[in-house]
Design brief:
The protein has 349 residues and is α/β, with parallel strands linked by helices. It has eleven helices and 14 strands. The model has no long low-confidence stretch (mean pLDDT 95). It binds S-adenosyl-L-homocysteine (SAH).
Length: 349
């Protein structure tokens, strides 16, 4: 099997280059071509000899994503990308433009096996994990497309990053490496549905990245209705893992809370939520649920959402309502890919 050269850190790349009988300094040049200039073929590496390029073509694979479709919002500049992988699978990523910079939301897996009830990404299960190179190239390709620097990255697209943990760690290392695209750890957020052992392991790495937990409920009972992962990790255990993350890293944790009309948006929910996260240095991000056609969930009225926010604030909790971006293009996570795959099926039938 060929080496996935874009997934190697500089040390591994140096060792690889040496096995090809080359001097170690070549590794740094190649690394720059891959991660700074972001070329799509070895031939474009103009300071590398023809013989080495030949060897690279024989021994290594240069993972690059192809753009299958781009949807551009006319309202706020949001872009949704559908990327093709070399094995024919497709994934989606999103560019969001803010005053403070460009933020990219990437996928970490093809599909997902977590089964959250309101989420479109998980409806067809998990296909496979993404390699570090495939996670990185989503950011590289979007940066090239807009010709601007990407300053923030959120791992909040399709997939459960903690279910692809080794690749996630390598991705983080490459993304934040000063020899590469050099995105600051503080500008990276990883979102999880709550895989407790991996959250603790990440805490112990003592990185400066932001951990976001998809909480979505104020009690174990309600969380179970929405998220099957709650069968495995009880709600207090998950919140305690967040406390542990804060203790180890000093980083404020984000709780994502998708408001589902009549399910988790009541006064009792506010009360229970305050008790649950009391004393934790955190920030709550309310997301009115984005309805998907396969499920009956609806988002609460704007008034209910605002009242929920105000009540949390009265209890001293930092809270924001997620601004809806790209309302005029395919909504919730996983919907663009899902629609595309539906069309493929029709074409083949
Ligand atoms: N698996 C990770 C990251 C991917 S989902 C996680 O669970 O955190 C990114 C966020 O979007 C999660 O908080 C997820 O619960 C939420 N989400 C998924 N589908 C949604 C929908 N239809 N409406 C609102 N939020 C949704």
């Amino acid at each position: 099997m060929k080496v996935d050269i874009k997934s190697l850190d500089l040390k591994e790349l140096t060792a690889f280059v040496e096995t090809l009988g080359e001097k170690p300094f070549r590794a740094k040049q190649i690394y720059q071509w891959l991660h700074v200039k972001q070329v799509a073929s070895f031939e474009e590496m103009t300071n590398i000899s023809k013989t080495l390029i030949e060897k690279l073509n024989e021994e290594a694979e240069l993972v690059t994503l192809s753009v299958v479709e781009v949807q551009k919002s006319q309202i706020d500049g949001t872009r949704k990308y559908l990327f093709g992988l070399s094995d024919g699978n497709v994934i989606e990523s999103v560019l969001m433009r803010y005053k403070h910079g460009n933020s990219v939301c990437i996928s970490s897996q093809v599909g997902c096996r977590m089964g959250c009830r309101f989420c479109a990404s998980t409806l067809d299960g998990l296909v496979r994990n993404l390699k570090p190179s495939e996670m990185l190239d989503q950011i590289y390709k979007i940066g090239q497309d807009i010709g601007e620097r990407i300053s923030n990255v959120v791992v909040m697209g399709t997939g459960e990053p903690m279910d692809n943990f080794e690749n996630l760690l390598k991705f983080i290392e490459l993304l934040t490496d000063e020899n590469g695209i050099n995105i600051s750890q503080r500008n990276l957020t990883v979102s999880t549905c709550g895989i407790v052992p991996r959250m603790k392991e990440l805490a112990e790495k003592n990185l400066q990245i932001t951990l976001a937990l998809s909480l979505h409920a104020s009690t174990q009972e309600k969380r179970l209705q929405l998220m099957p992962v709650a069968n495995k990790y009880e709600i207090h255990e998950v919140v305690n893992a967040c406390r542990y993350y804060f203790e180890k890293t000093g980083r404020r944790v984000t709780f994502e809370y998708s408001l589902v009309g009549g399910v988790n948006d009541t006064d009792t929910d506010v009360k229970n939520l305050c008790t649950l996260i009391k004393g934790l240095n955190c920030h709550v991000n309310l997301i009115p649920v984005n309805p998907i056609k396969e499920r009956e969930f609806v988002s609460p009225d704007t008034g209910v959402t605002l009242a929920f926010k105000n009540k949390l604030e009265k209890n001293g909790i930092n809270v924001t309502i997620r601004r809806e971006m790209g309302r005029d293009i395919d909504g919730a996570c996983g919907q663009l890919r899902k629609r595309y795959m539906g069309q493929q099926k029709e074409r083949l039938a």
